[in-house]
Amino acid sequence: xxxxxxxxxxxxxxxxxxxxxxxxxxxxxxxxxxxxxxxxxxxxxxxxxxxxxxxxxxxxxxxxxxxxxxxxxxxxxxxxxxxxxxxxxxxxxxxxxxxxxxxxxxxxxxxxx
Length: 113
Known about the structure:
- This protein has 113 residues and is α+β, with helices and mostly antiparallel strands.
- The chain has helices at residues 24-27, 39-52, 65-70, 97-107; strands at 2-4, 35-37, 58-60, 89-90.
- The strands form 2 sheets. It has a two-stranded antiparallel sheet with strand order 1-2. Strands 3-4 form a two-stranded antiparallel sheet.
- Helix 2 packs across helix 4 (97-107).
- The longest helix is centred in the middle third of the chain and has 14 residues, at 39-52.
- The radius of gyration is 14 Å and the shape is globular.
């Protein structure tokens, strides 16, 4: 896991940000713009996007401590990187829910809410 103070610190390109379907800004906290990169989680997200064959809108991913508290998140939430995990809230807009769920399962996601 790597924590960046702000998404603008992350350079996109070869071996720096290897997830072409998602920008650092999409994964950043909606509070202060910080980003927690969990490479294994990002690999699964990227794989799910490829399996689905359609763009994903990320509603929420990493949350800085203050933003997490503002939205009523648990202190050890996966949105905070709790237990080395990172949560992604993906919009269903433009997706058939069962197909999106199947793509996420096939990619390796194990928790759904």
